[in-house]
Fold:
Amino acid sequence: IAYYEIMTEGDATGQPFTFPIPTYNITEDFDWDSRVASAIFDNAAIGISNLSPDLHRQRVNRAFAEFNGYSTEELLAGTGLDLLAPEERERVLAAYRELAEGGAQRFRTEARFLHKEGHSLWADIQLTTIRDDRGGVSSLLATILDVTDRRIVVQSGVLRQTVIDAPLRRIQHVSLHRDVEQRFLSLGTLL
Structure:
């Protein structure tokens, strides 16, 4: 716990330390109700929201609140759909229904969110079901990774000009790495 206190208290200006990035080895007997578990959840670098089966937020972490501009109290009064852009809600709700019916264990996608101040944000979200002993959904864990900057670069065409075209003119053997959804991951050289 002392480690987390130091990391979150931050430097002399109050900025939290972001390096080193902690790695945890969590075993089956890990105590999820402990202070350590709370510290891991609260200080994760990505947004996390624990949702009830009816999609109401039960718990959120600091990174999720910072991502969308709402206070923890405001977030806990809402649902897992209310911050999504209207065109995203039905798709994510349909994925949740499939998760609840046991059709899948997790769902991952990129979705547009609306910040408290009204501007758009993009996130790589993953919903994972947490099931009870009977196999029913007891809760969902949502992780939210801010990909707004990458999305802006890709959509603006700057990616093509600055990241692809310029290096391609200088390097003879180049590989462009994309994931299954055709999201740009990295640029490297072929040996």
